[in-house]
Amino acid sequence: MRPKSLSVRCEQGSKGGPGLDVWLSRGAMLAFFGAVGVELTTGKGVLQNVGLMAPLPALALGLTGVVGVVTAFIIFQSGSSD
User: Fold this and answer.
1) Measured between alpha carbons, how far is 28 from 46 in angstroms, rounded to an integer?
2) Where are the transmembrane segments (predicted)?
3) Are 63 and 57 in contact (CB under 8 A)?
4) What does the alpha-carbon distance between residue 31 and residue 54 come to, in Å, rounded to a whole number?
5) Mean local confidence (pLDDT), 56-77
6) Alpha carbon distance 7, 10 (integer Å)
7) Predicted pLDDT at 46
8) Cα angle at 74 between 59 and 55, to 5 degrees?
9) Within a domain: residue 24?
10) What's the chain's average pLDDT?
11) 50 within some domain
12) Residue 82, helix vs strand vs coil
């Protein structure tokens, strides 16, 4: 029995090179790994390193949930307009 082949569709066009979204994604990945690296080396969170106190855990969890729901809504709305 042969395994089924898997095809991957790439949304990135090959005409003009990487677009703005690709560069923003790369920048976000670098910033994330930089923040994790700073946290691992100093032992303090990112907000504590710049002199801000970390928010309450319940507030941070609620804000994360709201941002996640809004982001999912935007993604689903942009997908349904095609």
Assistant:
1) 15
2) 58-76
3) no
4) 19
5) 86
6) 10
7) 79
8) 15
9) yes
10) 79
11) no
12) coil
